[in-house]
From TrEMBL:
Gene3D superfamilies: (Glycosyl)asparaginase
Family assignment from sequence similarity: Belongs to the Ntn-hydrolase family.
Residues marked Cleavage (site): 197-198
Molecular function per GO: threonine-type endopeptidase activity
Organism name: Sparus aurata (Gilthead sea bream)
Gene Ontology CC annotation, any one: cytoplasm
Name of the protein: Taspase, threonine aspartase, 1
Gene Ontology terms: biological process: protein maturation
Taxonomic lineage of the native organism: Eukaryota, Metazoa, Chordata, Craniata, Vertebrata
Annotated catalytic residues: 198 (nucleophile)
Record-linked PANTHER family: L-ASPARAGINASE, THREONINE ASPARTASE 1
Protein's gene: TASP1
Length: 345
């Protein structure tokens, strides 16, 4: 995941991140943070910056989002994505969309179109579209299509072939419940937990607006048409500005499937950004600050995070790992930090 603070934070998935690819994981998080902060410095609001971060993450072949996403049971790519604007509380999402390189662009366009108000004849604009309808709507609104075969990578194709062979072998041996469970676990191990490697970002701009977004290729070998938690309202991401009853603005993005009660292990991750305004001393200078907390937590073996503020020269990245000897899904890691942003009124 990625955290971006005019300030920004990002997450490149909760799952397993090998030491051999640690440099690549961190590099994509750095690029995503930098992309978001560049947009913020240019005057963009939080929702535009969080979209820019997600596009960078979706374009990386090392993430399970956009390019290089997990293949479904039929060998196709279907992605989920959602975005939320804390200022307006508007939300946009797509589920099981194929043939679009950057699903978050469709989710963001749905959000912006909803903010424009009702359509002709008083119709309510959509905020969540799935499947072919989502693809056609995206193309009609100027988002270019991309053939699914061009979105698959060498890694995702080889993982699909391995998983398919294992499934075929397992079905010959046993079609019972226990074997189904073994197939699911082997899928996670073969993909390096790519099944869970969702990406997300949270951002606060200098006006104090927050935004969050998340994007995922979903579970490996999932049934075509399956929509995962990344697309669901209040589940994949959340953003809400401060109000009279709450002094804090909050943005959240999640990874994994922590809401599947039937699973033996609860595997997932989350990044959280919380901020509030504070008066700097001396007050005569009319300088206000934004106190920002950025936290991340995961029950998976590892999670790669990055974060950056507009005052930083470069992003900070970190691969958070569970302590040695602990069992993923039965143990929790929590880390984070605090920074202060100064704003001249």
């Amino acid at each position: 995941m990625i955290g971006v603070l005019s300030n920004a934070g990002v997450m490149e998935g909760a799952g397993y991140h090998s030491e051999s690819k640690a440099k690549e994981y961190k590099h994509v998080c750095k690029r995503a943070c930098q992309r978001a902060v560049d947009r913020l410095k240019a005057g963009a609001l939080a929702v535009e910056a969080v979209t820019a971060a997600l596009v960078e993450l979706e374009d990386s072949p090392f993430t399970n989002a956009g390019m290089g996403s997990n293949l479904n049971l039929s060998g196709g790519i279907e992605c989920d994505a959602s975005i939320m604007d804390g200022k307006s509380l508007h939300y946009g999402a797509v589920g099981a969309i194929s043939g679009i390189k950057n699903p978050v662009l469709v989710a963001n366009r749905l959000l912006s179109e909803a903010q424009r108000g009702k359509l002709s004849a008083g119709r309510i604009p959509p905020c969540f579209l799935v499947g072919r309808g989502a693809h056609d709507w995206a193309v009609s609104h100027g988002i270019p299509p991309c053939p699914s075969e061009k979105m698959a990578t060498k890694f995702s194709l080889s993982a699909y072939k391995r998983n398919k062979r294992k499934m075929e072998l397992a079905e010959k041996l046993d079609t019972g419940h226990n074997q189904t469970k073994k197939r699911r676990q082997s899928c996670e191990n073969e993909n390096g937990s790519g099944c869970l490697d969702t990406v997300g970002a949270v951002v606060v701009d200098l006006e104090g607006n927050v935004a969050a977004a998340v994007s995922s290729g979903g579970l490996a070998m999932k049934h075509p048409g399956r929509v995962g938690q990344a697309a669901h309202y209040g589940c994949g991401c959340w953003a809400e500005n401060t109000c009279n009853m709450n002094p804090y603005s909050t943005a959240v993005s999640t990874s994994g499937s922590p809401f599947l009660a039937s699973e033996d292990r609860v595997l997932g991750g989350v990044i959280v950004l919380r901020c509030c305004r504070c008066v700097e001393a001396p007050p005569s200078q009319n300088i206000q600050g934004i106190l920002v907390e950025f936290l991340w937590s995961h029950t998976t073996e590892s999670m790669c995070v990055g974060y950056m503020s507009a005052q930083d020269s470069k992003a900070k990245t970190h691969i958070s790992r569970l302590p040695p000897g602990t069992v993923p899904g039965q143990c929790l890691a929590i880390e984070g930090g605090v920074c202060r942003l100064s704003v001249v009124e």
